[in-house]
């Protein structure tokens, strides 16, 4: 069993760390929110007052933070973990961040003989809880092979996307498609409801027809159609609109760099940015359906 430090115990990181504990690893946890730390400690994790203390004995350091600036600050910022992690250890960053930050952080860590893979995830909070996430890993083959058995405790599909940053490119492509599917599904459901259809009936019809997609299968945006999804919990928990807006910004940056055309992604970015700006940033991204509702 491995000695693992886990940093960032939010909607995703909390259940992921919990699954590492259930697999029998020694896990030291850290988050800025004491409540998040206390929950994992009650499940058997250790912790310390400072994040630098949590990583000093770790062979693997897993991080699950909101955005690139948090990852950069944690590892290579003032008094960053680069000064505390043992040489030869492997950092697995599962946050969704920009490729540029991955290259910067991984290069600086490599100078201190600390290995790094980017390993963003797909599957949502449900996947994190069930241990069925998909991991998209960027890094060299040796580090991928080292990371894989650890990731298998938290996910069921572990892909090697390519070199450093490739995991992030795969992730933003996937999330751009998810945003397009969610806004399209919300629009279609609202059109049906505006014309007298019941959301559950229409969802059933589209699930068995050519409009079928992941949002209809497991993440319906209409309250009451499915249990245990954010739409049936006032859009709390799940994947925050702010984070989706961030991911769509990353997709647009990636498209600019490769001079790719992403008209659907651009529209989705604007829809989610508008929705976030109207006070829905901390609500789950499926709340985009409210934008289509006539008042
Ligand atoms: P979250 O906001 O719920 O959790 C982030 C956690 O990081 C918070 O608990 C915060 O306190 C902690 N944190 C921030 N800076 C820190 C620091 N310096 N040291 C320690 N802890 C720190 O976010 P989340 O939903 O868990 O998402 C995390 C990442 O996973 C994001 O990059 C997101 O885009 C990605 N993601 C989320 C989902 C989802 O469905 N929520 C799905 C796939 C990927």
From TrEMBL:
Reactions this protein catalyses = 3-hydroxy-2-methylpropanoate + NAD(+) = 2-methyl-3-oxopropanoate + NADH + H(+)
Looking at the record, the residues that make up the 3-hydroxyisobutyrate dehydrogenase-like NAD-binding domain are: 165-291
Q: What top-level class of enzyme does the UniProt entry assign? A: oxidoreductase
> What is the designated name of this protein?
3-hydroxyisobutyrate dehydrogenase
Q: Which GO terms describe its molecular function?
A: 3-hydroxyisobutyrate dehydrogenase activity
UniProt xrefs under NCBIfam families:
HIBADH
Give the species this sequence originates from. Thalassotalea psychrophila
Pathway stated in the Swiss-Prot or TrEMBL entry: Amino-acid degradation; L-valine degradation
